[in-house]
Amino acid sequence: MIKQASLLSVLLLVASLSLKAETSGDVFTKVDENPVPVRTVAPKATRGESGLVAVSCIIDEAGKVISASVTKSTNSLLDESAVEAVQNWSFKPAKKDGKTVKVKVTVPIRFDQA
Q: What is the CATH number of the domain that holds 66?
């Protein structure tokens, strides 16, 4: 299960992401104001499993996660749980030039043994 301290680390990482160049279309990776988690859901892990899963997600202009997928993982048994959890998160939307925009970010989810 994810520990409260690990969840706080994830929140701080997402809030302080150094986003880089824009991608094609209307999804950005560089914005003036980063998305900030306002609602998080802890992932469910099989007892005894631990690892780190990097979940890449697109957050829309309303702060809703509209897609999520695993980009890196140290334990594939945790991948589905990490993606399901992040899909239920909500964010204060990212802003570019004063307007809310879609943004692509990577959220690290750490699972610690219970």
A: 3.30.2420.10
